[in-house]
Amino acid sequence: MCHSRINAYSVGSVCRSCGNLLEEIPFPPRRPEPLAPPRAPNRLKRMVSPQAQSEYSRLTAEYARSVELLARIQESYNEKLVVWRQQVGEIAARAEWKSLYSRYRISDLWRLTGEQFEDFLRNLFVAMGYRAKVTQKTGDQGADLIVSRPKARIAVQAKRQDQPVGNRAVQELLGGMLFYKCHRGIVATTSTFTRSAQALAAKDQRITLWDARKLSDLYAEYLGVAPPFSWEEYHRLKRAIEDGSK
């Protein structure tokens, strides 16, 4: 047979050796189609025991449940955190509301006369649980009020002024304590105190200085009655105070 030399001929040609037609013999010969790659063996099933596979599936499911539970806990925590922040914010706003309202109203004291300021202090001490008495208008010996309650007798020097109070008021108060036989002394003012007055008062633990801020806090606690809290009124009051301080 000369078919081994078929590559030299075209389809439909005649073999030069045997004379046979080459119609049924493809040219060039078809290459065999590549075989599909064999499927990769399931190594998990072949190498891992059924018990290990079952344990792996159980742990996987348990991990998924843990992730879902953690997500629910995180969501619940975020919701409670928002509520908690709102509650804390409202508590702080209510406290500031009371303080802001009292500071806004305490400005009325700056328009009082000296005698009216003494009357205000008397009412304040009465609200605090003291018995209060205004001393004589002239020759008060350094004390404008004498307040007392069991085991306590206090001389009060009232200074209604705009300028800082100096150490002279502290010196006068010491004389008033001696004259009226008081255990303690308070200098109250609608202003502030100079450094020298603060330094002198610091030498005697019986002396207490009340400036405008202290009176504002006491006013809010014992005399000031703030209206019911509301966010709208709270913001309005803050803007009013900020505008007034400019």
C-alpha Rg, in Å?
49 Å
Q: What is the domain tally? A: 2
CATH architecture of the largest domain: 3-Layer(aba) Sandwich
Low-pLDDT residue spans: 3-11
Secondary-structure-based class equals alpha/beta
The level 1 CATH classification of the largest domain is Alpha Beta
Under CATH, the topology of the largest domain can be stated as: Trna Endonuclease, Chain: A, domain 1
User: In what range is the share of β-strand residues?
Assistant: 5-15%
Please report the distance between the alpha carbons of the first and last residues.
118 Å
Give the ordered list of helices and strands: HHHEEEHEHEHH
Helix content: 40-55%
Describe the fold and architecture.
The chain is of the alpha/beta class and 246 residues long. The chain has two domains: 1-30, no CATH class; 47-231, Trna Endonuclease, Chain: A, domain 1. Helices cover 51% and strands 11% of the residues. A five-stranded mixed β-sheet has the order 1-2-3-4-5, sandwiched between helices. Helix 4 links the parallel strand 3 (152-159) and strand 4 (184-189). The longest helix is centred in the first third of the chain and has 57 residues, at 50-106. The relative contact order is 0.09.
Question: Topology of this structure?
Answer:
Layout: H1 43-47, H2 50-106, H3 114-127, E1 131-134, E2 145-149, E3 152-159, H4 167-180, E4 184-189, H5 195-202, E5 207-210, H6 212-223, H7 231-245
Parallel strand pairs: 3-4, 4-5
Antiparallel strand pairs: 1-2, 2-3
Helix pairs in contact: 2-6, 2-7, 4-5
